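Why should sequence recovery work at all? Because a backbone constrains its sequence more than one might expect. Tight turns favour small or flexible residues, buried strands favour hydrophobic ones, and helices have their own preferences. The token representation captures these environments compactly. In the example below, the structure is given first.
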């Protein structure tokens, strides 16, 4: 059996594919207050704004391509049972060839009814107000917004606990509950943190820091893990 490599990825791995990070230093996402476009309150206040925002995000993702970091993680499946837990809503890991990807915060290429958190359909065309699911509910992006539960977090915690090797790539480790997944990783498990600015990891032991962008950092990770 291959050793289990669990990888927690964040916005930093997709930034090199041209996708903007979720929250810029000014607290805005593409010029919007994040709570206007990524919360139930924002949806109830102005659903048209929210749909317009995510329609553009989906186009951005469709036009983006996986970068060397995504591809490198997929190639590591030759040596490891790679299980990716991502905070990202894009599908770049899958398009790069990764076969085991858990999305914590939803997927921009899927949509769901406002009445049903689980059942999804492909989000192929722009969603418009009046586009209804079979249950009569308005379609909305299959995204976990601020103020909503993270349905996959318990599954992700179980995955993290199974890691023989654990890597964190391109995430600030300050968005919870995702950041708390490191608490489920054994102290004995080797941990690699890759970021162009290493986040606070004082609470972790057995940590190897790689202060580089994701593409360069994953290249170094591959060398360290397969030499």
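From this structural description, the recovered sequence reads:
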């Amino acid at each position: 059996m291959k050793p289990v490599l669990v990888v927690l990825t964040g916005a930093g791995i997709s930034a090199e594919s041209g996708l903007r990070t979720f929250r810029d230093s000014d607290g805005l996402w593409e010029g919007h207050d994040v709570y206007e476009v990524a919360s139930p309150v924002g949806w109830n206040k102005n659903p048209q704004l929210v749909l317009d925002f995510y329609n553009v995000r989906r186009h951005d993702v469709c036009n983006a391509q996986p970068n060397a970091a995504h591809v490198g993680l997929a190639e590591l499946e030759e040596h490891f049972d790679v299980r990716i837990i991502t905070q990202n809503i894009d599908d770049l890991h899958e398009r790069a060839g990764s076969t085991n990807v858990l999305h914590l915060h939803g997927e921009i290429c899927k949509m769901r009814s406002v009445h049903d958190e689980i059942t999804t359909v492909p989000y192929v065309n722009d969603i418009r107000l009046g586009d209804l699911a079979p249950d009569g509910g308005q379609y909305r992006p299959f995204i976990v917004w601020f103020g909503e539960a993270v349905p996959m977090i318990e599954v992700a915690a179980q995955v993290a606990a199974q890691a023989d090797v654990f890597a964190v790539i391109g995430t600030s480790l300050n968005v919870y509950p995702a950041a708390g997944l490191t608490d489920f990783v054994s102290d004995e498990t080797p941990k690699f943190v890759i970021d162009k600015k290493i986040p606070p990891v004082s609470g972790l032991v057995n940590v190897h820091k790689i202060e580089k962008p994701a593409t360069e950092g994953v290249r170094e990770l591959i060398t360290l893990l397969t030499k």
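A few observations help interpret the result. The radius of gyration is 18 Å.
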